[in-house]
Amino acid sequence: MNRAVARFTKVAVYVTNPAQGLFARDTLTKPKILSTRPLFPAARTVLDQHFEVDYWAPAERISRDELLKRVADKDGLVCLLTEKVDEELLAAAPKLRIAATVSVGYDNIDVAACTRHKVAATHTPGVLDDTTADFAWTLLMAIGRRLLEGDAWMRTGTWPGWDLDQLVGGDVWGKTLGVLGFGRIGRGVARRALGFNMRVIYSDAVRAHEGMERELKAEFVDRDTLFRESDFISLHVPLLPDTRHLISRENLGKMKRTAYLVNTSRGPVVDEEALAEALENKIIAGAALDVYEHEPLVHPALLPRRDVILAPHIASASLDTRTKMAVMAAENVVALFAGRRPPNALNADALGLK
Ligand SMILES: NC(=O)c1ccc[n+]([C@@H]2O[C@H](COP(=O)([O-])OP(=O)(O)OC[C@H]3O[C@@H](n4cnc5c(N)ncnc54)[C@H](O)[C@@H]3O)[C@@H](O)[C@H]2O)c1
């Protein structure tokens, strides 16, 4: 038996009679889990049945030192995208068997290092697609139609009354939407464009199958064509070495001067310095961002700009969806300690999990 399997089989001794529930034989042997947030009640219910859980509850985020200290004696970790699971953390947690991030993006987790340490890494795909696609559209409409500029006028009492050329923005209906990253969320964004009679073009490392293209009336194009022809570009690629600064000075220069950029993927996909420069030089018309290169900071040159909308990384933030994400993370942890393959494991095959 290889080491990974042996390590995971060891925990299966906790599961005796399924009728008694998990870990019923000896409550003293309940695995210890660290959760870096109190999570939502539905997720706590899942975890509390099976584990001894240390929830980090203070309002301020857990510090790196505290995280390393608390995870040292834990068997499992439920974390957020703000916590890095890297070589240092894994070395500090010799008993750790699973790191479950409450996010679909897993650029906070060094999956290869997890595999080396025989730690299962899991994420939360699928449950946030529509909520995130809705929000990409919220940003797209708001930047195109200058909603926040108008809102600011109303709040400051500076609206001079109706006029013909006031806050004239870009149309959405009938325009060309470029989806960069045509995965679960990108497709959701494309699907919504059908209702606006838009032309949808997409670029992805992998071409979608014909049926999907037909259903969404989406046309596969190379990246340069997408930059050149889109009126709105919506980003949905994961953060990877080859997507970091994908929105570079050079690529911004290929966009239409009337085009808008929407980013609900990950901040470092956009070179914020280059974006600020492109806006200043009117290379593009505007940008709406949910994510940032150095969260929670925003590039200072973007802050005073009226042609930018800045949202605080809330694209998946509906109560239902965030609850589903937390429950999904909890269920992955339960599955592993029950001797099952966690449904959303990123390295199940590498670890030989069945
Ligand atoms: N702002 C938020 O709150 C929020 C919420 C959910 C997801 N996200 C981000 O959105 C990303 C996408 O999520 P998803 O569930 O749609 O993922 P997904 O894996 O279903 O889709 C990603 C797509 O990007 C493509 N891709 C990968 N590398 C590429 C490259 N170099 N060039 C072109 N295409 C490439 C993949 O082939 C895939 O089709 C996540 O990784 C996450 O970072 C952010």
Enumerate the distinct ligands. nicotinamide-adenine-dinucleotide
Helix-strand pattern? HEHEHEHEHEHHEHEHEHEHEHEEHH
- What number is the mean pLDDT? 93
> Strand fraction band?
5-15%
Describe the model.
The chain has 354 residues and is an alpha/beta fold. 35% of the residues lie in helices and 13% in strands. It has a seven-stranded parallel sheet, sandwiched between helices. The chain is globular. The protein binds nicotinamide-adenine-dinucleotide. Nicotinamide-adenine-dinucleotide binds next to helix 8.
Topology summary:
Elements: H1 3-11, E1 32-35, H2 41-50, E2 52-55, H3 64-71, E3 76-79, H4 87-92, E4 98-101, H5 111-116, E5 120-122, H6 129-144, H7 147-156, E6 176-180, H8 184-193, E7 199-203, H9 210-216, E8 218-220, H10 223-229, E9 232-235, H11 249-252, E10 260-263, H12 272-280, E11 286-289, E12 308-310, H13 319-337, H14 348-351
Parallel strand pairs: 1-2, 1-3, 3-4, 4-5, 6-7, 6-9, 7-8, 9-10, 10-11, 11-12
Helix pairs in contact: 2-13, 6-8
Bound molecules: nicotinamide-adenine-dinucleotide.
